[in-house]
Amino acid sequence: MTQRSQQQNENYSSNHKRIAAKQTSTQTLKDKLRQAREEAAPPHIIADLGKSHAKEKHELLKLLKLQHQERQKSVTDALQSSVLNHSHPTTPPHSLWDLLRRYKTDHVQSNLPAQTHDNASPEPQIWKLGPLTFDPQAWHRFRHALGHNLLKHKSLPYNEAATQKLSVHFAVRALLHKVEHPILPVDPLFHEAITRQELAAEIKKLNSDKSPGNDGITNRMIQATGPQFQKNLYDMFGTLWTHDIQPAAWQMSLMQPIYKGGNKSILISRLTKFTATIH
After folding, report:
1. Does residue 100 belong to any structural domain of this protein?
2. Which long-range contacts (CB under 8 A, 24 or more apart) does 91-99 make?
3. Is the model's pTM score more than 0.70?
4. What are the tens digits of pLDDT across the range 53-100?
5. Fewer CB atoms near the end CB (10 Å): N or C, the chain?
6. CA–CA separation, 226 and 27 (whole Å)
7. Contact 65, 58 (CB under 8 A)
8. How far out from the chain centre does Cα 50 lie?
9. Do residue 29 and residue 70 come from a single domain?
């Protein structure tokens, strides 16, 4: 065994002699197994070392479990003794937290009270003072009830309808402030208003034979409209551009796949992935 492995065993081995010896033997077999793998030992030797290491590890876990049960029993006995002898002048009272920490570290002391009040309410989100208990989860139940907002609950002490109205009011004010005082980009191209000349030029550039969207309006129909319709169109686009919004319908697309031979299942799979990527 290497010097480092021996030092680790000295640091982490239990005070229990049987457990310490079992930890040492388990680590020794683990080192031998690793060395055999690094040196490409015959498979049957690696298999035997692996079985021996697994057996030693299993026995070590059994000993550790037994030790854990013994320490739990000592904590329970000490707790019961503390409750029975609470008024005895020679027996100092121990809190549950003190016993739990001593069980883990054998030296940590606690200033918490020996008992805490539990929640007497059948609903965990409402706190009602209950009897004293040694259960450490009582504090967590108190914290859960303390942090619960009781929204849409019959025991809510506030006017929930007025609160919701106030929330909507502030949300609308925030939205209006964002619309009226937009954060403009550095480039003036992105916050200057659209002109009628730009709209007319873009309408002329439209492909007349392009397929329409869900509304059925084609580019040829838009190009055939008069000044009044184009003015309404200009007002609409100007509003959308100024307030940096767009209709949800513009995010939808209508696709008509055309089958030109080949495997249909592959075509459908590719179209599904392509549509999901667009949305």
Report:
1. no
2. 96/134, 96/136, 97/136, 99/75
3. no
4. 888 888 888 888 888 888 777 777 766 665 555 444 444 545 666 666
5. C
6. 90
7. no
8. 39
9. yes
Tell whether 57 and 121 lie within a shared domain. Answer: no
Question: Which residue type does 130 have?
Answer: G
Query: In this structure, are residues 185 and 191 in contact, taking their beta carbons and an 8 Å threshold?
Result: yes
Tell me whether residue 213 is in a domain: yes
Find the domain containing 137 and state its range.
115-157
Element (H, E) at 254: none
The token duo for 21 is 């010896």
pLDDT of 9 above 50: no
Q: Judge whether 31 and 5 are in contact, CB under 8 Å.
A: yes
Distance, in Å, from the CA atom of 271 to the CA atom of 221, rounded to the nearest integer, reads 30
- H helix intervals, 85-136: 96-105
CA distances from 147 to 2, 139, 235 (A): 54, 12, 50
131 and 76, same structural domain?
Answer: no
Q: Give the pLDDT of residue 125.
A: 81
Q: Domain for residue 168, yes or no?
A: no
State whether 7 and 77 are in the same domain: yes
Q: Token pair for residue 55?
A: 């057996």
Q: Tell me whether residue 96 is exposed, middle or buried, using C-beta atoms within 10 angstroms of its C-beta: 0 to 12, 13 to 18, 19 or more.
A: buried
- Of 263, 199, 210, the C-alpha closest to 235 is 199
CA distances from 36 to 8, 41, 57, 246 (A): 21, 5, 18, 68
User: Do 79 and 22 have their domain in common?
Assistant: yes
Find the DSSP H helices in 106-207: 137-146, 160-180, 196-205
Token pair listed for 244: 């940096």
Structural domain count of the chain: 3
Q: Say yes or no: 15 and 64 in one domain.
A: yes
